[in-house]
Amino acid sequence: MSFRLKAITREEHLAFVAARPSASHMQVPSWGDVKPDWRAESLGWFDGSGRLVGVGLVLFRPLPKLKRYLAYLPEGPVIEWDAPDLERWLEPMLAYLKAQGAFSVKMGPPVVTRRWSAEAVKAAIADPQARQLRDAKATAHEPGAFDIADRLRRMGWQQTEPGSEDGFAAGQPRYVFQVPFAGRSLEDIQRGLNQQWRRNIKKAEKAGVKVVLGSYDDLPAFHHIYVETAERDRFIPRPLGYFQRMWTALTAEDPNRMRLYLAHHEGEVLAAATMLTVGEHVWYSYGASTNRKREVQPNNAIQWRMMSDAHELGANIYDFRGITDTLEESNHLLGLLRFKVGTGGQAVEYLGEWDFPLNKLLHKALDLYMSRR
């Protein structure tokens, strides 16, 4: 018998997430407020006794001139992904979303498939034959993930392939870099950093770099160097209003949901970063740094302060978010991967994003439109 699925209140949604060790920051009610171009709804799965057993934040994006929607559950929903009867969870979701006017459903199962240790990633980067991380031998496999992928395919779900240029998927990153904190003291984590990282942290301290917590009023200072970072690293920056909306929405839900850190040196902001927390999972979300005074190592200083604070908050995972899957020296994102590998963590591959076309014609039209953007 399938679960019953219906819209729930933000309070019910938040209480369910709060009772779990963690959920994605994109699966809390406030994330819907960050995305004004989408209509957000909290969904709940109920068992036969009326108990809430799963939740999902679904974002609806309307098709121009049509009352039809793309329904998107980023890094969700929050359900029992390893349940042997996965159909009981997903079929009522599809039926509900179709009744709401969805022509296509996109979701990102928070399911890990493979992991590569820092040593394995370094070896892959050094190997001239290794062109992509996915081709390198993994340190650990999660066999249950492949069963989940098979079941999704049998149900008619289609896996979105990672972007060909740099390994980032069109939606959320499939490959991320994480530092496990569970059962480790801060001294253990510091010992896990490579020699360069430890040296740079000391260098920043000696040079007088001060990392402080910022507030809403410091977001323009963050955004100023974020725009500089975007130009240097070749990505399109988000407007200041996005970060102001993000701060207002997330901190209203939980004062610790979003933090802003700024690295000062002699009265100048050299680096800044945002940190997000849900339960025992902490994410380094957005980072920015200027090209000036790079020799005082503000990036290492800010990350170490964030990692220290995350540990104090009881984090089990410090998540550096997306990394490139492409290991060729010509790839401009390889330096960022090397920076993250220096923390001694691990590269992690998720199951990726999956689509279910409820209306194949409209779904194909959307695919065509996205490919031409």
UniProtKB/TrEMBL annotation:
Q: Which GO terms describe its biological process?
A: cell wall organization; peptidoglycan biosynthetic process; regulation of cell shape
The protein's matches in PROSITE patterns, at most eight in alphabetical order, are given as:
FEMABX
Extract the SUPFAM superfamilies matched here. Answer: Acyl-CoA N-acyltransferases (Nat)
Does Cell wall biogenesis/degradation count among this protein's keywords?
A: yes
Keywords noted in UniProt: Acyltransferase, Cell shape, Cell wall biogenesis/degradation, Peptidoglycan synthesis, Transferase
GO function term, MF aspect, one: aminoacyltransferase activity
Q: Which Pfam families match?
A: FemAB
Q: Which family does it belong to?
A: Belongs to the FemABX family.
This protein's name:
Aminoacyltransferase
